[in-house]
Amino acid sequence: MYGELCTKFYDADKQFASTEEIYFYKKLFNNNDLLLEPMCGSGRLLIPLMQAGFTIHGIDNSSEMLKSCKKRASELGLQPILYENAVENIKLPQKYDGIIIPLGSFQLFYPRGDAYHALEKFKEHLKPKGKLVMDLFVPWDALYEHNEEERSEREVKTSSNSVIKINNYSIANKYEQFIISKTKYTEIINDKIVNQEEEQMYVAWYYRYEMELILEKFGFKNIRYEDRFLNKENHMTFIAEVA
Ligand SMILES: C[S@@+](CC[C@H](N)C(=O)[O-])C[C@H]1O[C@@H](n2cnc3c(N)ncnc32)[C@H](O)[C@@H]1O
């Protein structure tokens, strides 16, 4: 579950979606459409979409991410409708014209049965002809021989003048198509450690034609595909309608 330090790091590192990313959704939807962003996090995309005139609701199972989303939105005079829940459990009172899941968040469903269950939930919550839009990525580097393990370090400066360092260790299982990623977050103020947090997550990946078949199997049609470069990475964006 995304905790306090992970949220702080995410906000300092990613901030808000670019104008180009927002424009992509403007081409797909109009301002009368009701949108849902499962796994909306702290509103990196949801907030700029609201600013662009969209009505969009969010769901996330991290109270810290949602707290940050509310705070960042209220600083801009916005009050988003957010549901704190795991996507697997949702039963919302309305259906949507669009469900959007940017930047590979769908890949956090693991094992695969959970991903399939999420697709069923999305279908249940879409109006007839409603669109599902998902960005996915493949961790190509992990596919080279002897390159399954990776260690990395990074740091960001936060708005409260602390530094958060992250140490990540990840190991990929190429045949099962998932990565286990272990991250340690350390927050430092004036050379003193003030907070630490550890997090482990699975990241699954899917190839293009595999995902098209999965979408078909779960009742989606008119499946379209686009290559996009988002957040310094290649992504495959799938756009599918409810059958
Ligand atoms: C990488 S962040 C993406 C946030 C946002 N969509 C964006 O584009 O910046 C992934 C989010 O998924 C949420 N999450 C992970 N598993 C979830 C689940 N099963 N149900 C609901 N939210 C989940 C996390 O709490 C986190 O906020």
Overview of the molecule:
The chain is of the alpha/beta class. It folds into two domains: 174 residues, 3-Layer(aba) Sandwich (Rossmann fold); 65 residues. The strands form two sheets. A seven-stranded mixed β-sheet has the order 3-2-1-4-5-11-10, with helices on both faces. The longest helix has 13 residues. It is globular and about 55 Å long. The two termini are 33 Å apart. The mean pLDDT is 96. The structure holds S-adenosylmethionine. S-adenosylmethionine binds next to strand 2. The site of S-adenosylmethionine (SAM) has 19 residues, from strand 2.
What would the keywords be for this entry?
about 240 residues, Rossmann fold, 6 helices, single chain, 11 strands, alpha/beta
Q: Encode the helix/strand succession as letters.
A: HHEHEHEEHEEEEEHEE
- End-to-end separation in angstroms reads 33 Å
Q: Structural class of the secondary elements? A: alpha/beta
The amount of beta strand, in percent, is 35-45%
Biggest sheet strand line-up: 3-2-1-4-5-11-10
Largest sheet: 7 strands, mixed
Can you give me a brief rundown of this structure?
It is built from 6 helices and 11 strands.
Secondary structure blueprint with pairings:
Elements (H helix, E strand, L loop, with lengths): L3 H11 L4 H10 L5 E5 L7 H6 L3 E6 L2 H12 L6 E4 L11 E6 L10 H13 L1 E11 L12 E9 L5 E11 L4 E12 L2 E13 L3 H10 L2 E11 L2 E10 L1
Parallel strand pairs: 1-2, 1-4, 2-3, 4-5
Antiparallel strand pairs: 5-11, 6-7, 7-8, 8-9, 10-11
Bound molecules: S-adenosylmethionine.
